[in-house]
Amino acid sequence: MVTTRNIRSTGVPPVRPTFHSPPGFLLGLLLLLSYFATPLLHAAEVTTTLQPTSVPAGEGATLTITVTNGTPTAANKPEVPDLIIQGPNQGRQFSNINGVVSSTVTLSYAIGSMTAGEYNIPPFTLVIDGAEVKTESFTVKVTPSANQAPAGMAPGNSSGNPSPSGPTLAAGETDFGFLTIEFADKTRKHAWVGEIAPVRIRAWIPDGARANLNARIQPEGSSFTLHNLSERPQESREQNNGKNYHVVSWYGGLSALKGGRYAPDLTLKLNIAVPDPKGGRQSTGDPFMDQFLGRRMIQKEVTLHSKTDDSTKLEIRSLPTEGRPDNFAGAVGKFAFGRTTLPTTWKTGEPQQILTEVTGSGNFTLLKQPELLPAGPWKTYPGQNQFAAGDAAAFSGTTTFRFSQVARQAGNPTVHLSFSYFDPESGTYQTADSPPQSIQITGADLAPEPEPAAAAAQPDKIKEPENPLAPQRTRDSATASLTPWAYTSGFRRFLTGLSLLLLAAFSWRGFQHIRQNPARLARAAHAQALRTALSEVDTYAGRGDVPRFFAAARRALQVRLAPRYQLPAHAISLADLTARLSGDSPVVQFFREADLVEFSRPDPNAPQNLPNWRALLNRAMNALT
Amino acid sequence: MRFSPVLFLLLLLLLGTAPSPLRATSFDEANAAFASGDYAKAAATSQELIVSQGSSAARLYHLGNAQFKLGQFGPAILSYERAALLAPRDRDIQTNLKAARQAASTPASATALTWWRMPLGWLSLREWSFLTVSGLLLVTLPLLTWAIAGLARRPWLRPAAQASLTCGLILTVPGILALTTRSREKTIGIITAEKPSLRLSPFPEATATDSPGTGRRVILTDSRPGWYYLSIEGSTATGWMPATEVSPLFP
After folding, report:
1. Which of B63-80 are b and which e, b meaning 16 or more Cβ less than 10 Å from the residue's Cβ?
2. Residue to substitute from B48, B86, B185, interface A, most A β-carbons within 10 A
3. What is the CATH number of the domain that holds B73?
4. Would you call A485 and B130 a contact, using CB atoms and an 8 Å cutoff?
């Protein structure tokens, strides 16, 4: 049971803690001071972290200096050429752990560079509570960015200064702009077929013009192909012949398809609007303001072409056939093995995973999976390779090969991986070998395969087996649709039709079942007999035929009573009724009247009584409803 | 004689699939070209025959043989796979399919079949379709007879109806099971290009993420005009591939 009690205020004010008394106030002050002074009693501690230690060019790492139990009043950041150090962002935090209060001041710096390389970050100098403290030094590695210009090519001039490499153009050539192509290696005047030459393509659009690019840069003709054009072009403002230009720069790789001497011709379609030089008013330099002030603009869909004069022509040399290694697959460039992982313990018949990286620059797409040497009883499965571009033109980078190799003979061979490429600088074929490694192969020797192992190692040059095919047929077989009928819409229609047919058949069956139900038929016959009898009652009453009126009326009452007494209608008599009903029941009264008329001579005035008998019949019928 | 719809369907099926003398000419031409070593002509004739007059296991098999001899292992694997769709128990087709896969260094289907699924592969999907339809008709007929005529008044029909119902169920249940479990074959494709590239997005300039071998079985999960989004069977690699480099098993 729960009881409740009303608590009334006694009128006494509640007691509140106060510092009015001198000892209490002093105690509180002492506690407060001790809370904030505790960190000062501990010696300051400085820790420095750099996360991550390697970043792509253009992105930043975070250098965090944490000063515990001290307040840095000044922090001098070191200066390193090409290294950007931004910050600090400062934060302070107090913590109380088991009564020990400590304070932490965090200084965060963003560190990065636009130039790849390894940078040494000298110690930062901090002044903490009047004392100078130096942090430890770090090394940050800046890797080439995917958006970085290829090696040997200076990034676009974005400072607005005149470009030293700007082309010289004839008067009138610059109304709508032009394209220029700059090769990374400006000294070389020849290239090899298949060699990808990294290039910077620049679209020079007159300053103040508005341009919409309609398409990508396309090479004209079939002499060159353009590879891996950078998705995000760089933009800058530059001057040429005293005229300001908006310069859009892409990086890509040009590759020649046939030998000869010709200049690469590139085109770029764009929709350009430039201020009309004959428009009258002086341009403000701002297209929006020019339009606002009513300065007329000329809009045109133009195709910018690259310059193709003698100075841009290149000699394209075909690859020599002499000295071409068997495993040369078309790679032109400079490549070398990077990290290679070869299992040391093998078992015959069991595939072993080999991982190797090939780094360098050139047409990586034609660089094939290295082969395991010395050539012998190996079975090589083509694996997967993944290319990580080192620059925007995908000219340099690293391809990682992962493939499986099966040893067919036991032994302890010294193996290495090998591939061939063409060095465009020396003009010779080169073979790169990974460091040799001893491996141990256990297990039973396997039977030699019908296919040579070399064919398996080079899926592009697969040799056809001798006669591996089953014989041809001499007779044609029956035609059939490759798509089975069950998967076509015809099958769905067939199923729907079949279902509808069954539904219709079962509906019809159900209808028949209902129609032929004996109980329903008996009810219908009973209703029909009652309707007939009552109809006769009306007919004979209208004619004044008293005996037939009573016969029909008696039959109607008998039909009505039959289901109730479970007796045949014609067998129900006055005796049955008097046994079941009271004597003043209208049914009994009507039966008495009917017996009187039937078994005695009819009264000559009987027809005049018909309305009364009819009324009695109605009461009797209502009594049975 | 009373009209029997089942017999009529069987007759139609037989008439529709019987080889005609007209077809034999091109078939023999392709055979002759193959025998003379003109594999390019053999492949072209077989291809033309298939396009103009429909596929048959023998035509697809011959097309595969000619493509194999031409060193087009990806298209050869596709032709053999299609031939195997129509004739799954044909040992010659299986032998040549295996040879083509070996030549292309392509693994067979990586999906291991459970014991109860193996019998479902004994028949072709076309044969399962036929059995399922026959079974459904055998189930439907006694039900229709009972519904319309009433078997109680015709006791002599009862044993026939029971037999028909039993046979129908025996055919229908495994048929529906086979057609349902093997419906994923509709999404299978074969890489036909010699040097296919799996790309990050459906554009020719998109970054290539993988280079699966020719003849590899792939699962086509999505499509754009001219491109399929697919995953390599037995691998986690997924990406877009031009429709010119991959063909669905069911054309």
Report:
1. bbbbbbbeebbbbbbbbb
2. B86
3. 1.25.40.10
4. yes
Do residues B94 and B125 both lie within one domain?
no
Amino acid B241: pLDDT: 93
| CATH architecture of the domain with range A45-143 | Sandwich (2.60)
In a domain, B208, yes or no: yes
Mean pLDDT for A540-557 is 90
Instruction: Please report the number of interchain residue pairs, chain A to chain B, with beta-carbon separation below 8 angstroms.
Output: 151
Band of the pLDDT at B1, cuts 50, 70, 90? very low
ipTM: 0.77
On the question of pLDDT at B8 being above 70, the answer is no
Distance in angstroms (rounded) separating the CA atoms of residues A119 and A557? 120
Question: A356 CA to chain B: closest CA distance, Å?
Answer: 16
Q: Is residue B111 part of a domain?
A: no
B4 is a domain residue: no
Name the DSSP class of B38: -
Pick from A343-347, A358-362, A613-617, B110-114: least confident:
B110-114
Q: How would CATH label the architecture of A325-458?
A: Sandwich (2.60)
Host H or E run for residue A300: strand A297-305
Indicate if B25 and B93 belong to the same structural domain: yes
Please tell me the distance from the alpha carbon of residue A450 to that of residue A465, in angstroms, as a whole number. Answer: 8
Task: Give tens-digit pLDDT for A288-302.
Answer: 455 545 555 666 777
Judge whether A344 is closer than 8 Å to chain B, CB to CB. Answer: no
Q: Is the pLDDT reported for residue B86 higher than 50? A: yes
Tell me if B146 sits within 8 A of A507, measured CB to CB: no
Are B154 and B210 in a shared domain?
no
> For A477, which of B31, B34, B57 is closest by C-beta distance?
B57
Last residue in a domain, options B137, B162, B183: B183
- A258 at the B interface (CB within 8 A)? no
At B188-240, the pLDDT tens digits run 999 999 888 888 888 888 878 777 889 999 999 988 889 999 988 877 778 89
Residue B63 has pLDDT above 90, yes or no: yes
Binary contact (A382, B205; C-beta < 8 A): no
Cβ separation of A459 and B31 shorter than 8 Å? no
Are A487 and B186 an interchain contact pair (Cβ–Cβ within 8 Å)? yes
> Does one domain contain both B73 and B126?
no
Q: What is the Cα–Cα distance from A264 to A256, expressed in whole angstroms?
A: 9
Mean pLDDT (chain B, rounded): 84
The pLDDT value recorded for residue A503 is 92
Residues 387-416 of chain A with CB under 8 A from chain B are 387
Q: Per-residue pLDDT tens for A341-374?
A: 888 888 887 778 888 999 988 888 778 888 888 8
Give A390-442 pLDDT, tens digit per residue: 776 677 888 888 888 888 888 888 888 999 998 888 888 899 999 888 888 88
Residue A461's pLDDT is what? 43
Contact A293, A167 (CB under 8 A): no
Tokens encoding B4: 């029997």
pLDDT at A41 over 60: no
Interface membership of B86 toward A (CB under 8 Å): yes
Q: What strand order describes the sheet that includes A125-128?
A: A72-76, A125-128, A131-134
| Residue showing tokens 């009973």 | A526
* Chain B residues with beta carbon closer than 8 angstroms to that of A476: 19, 23-24, 27, 56, 58-59
Question: Do B26 and B94 fall into the same domain?
Answer: yes
Residue B12 belongs to a domain: no
Packing angle of the helix pair B39-53, B21-35 (nearest 10 deg): 160
Domain that includes residue B30, residue range:
21-103
Contact (CB<8Å) B31/A474: yes
Based on DSSP, count helices (H) and strands (E) in chain B, helices before strands: 8, 7
Total domains present in chain B: 3
SS3 label, residue B219 = strand
Range A22-48 average pLDDT: 54
- By CA distance, what is A449's nearest residue in B? B102
A478, A486, A495: residue with CB nearest B128 = A486
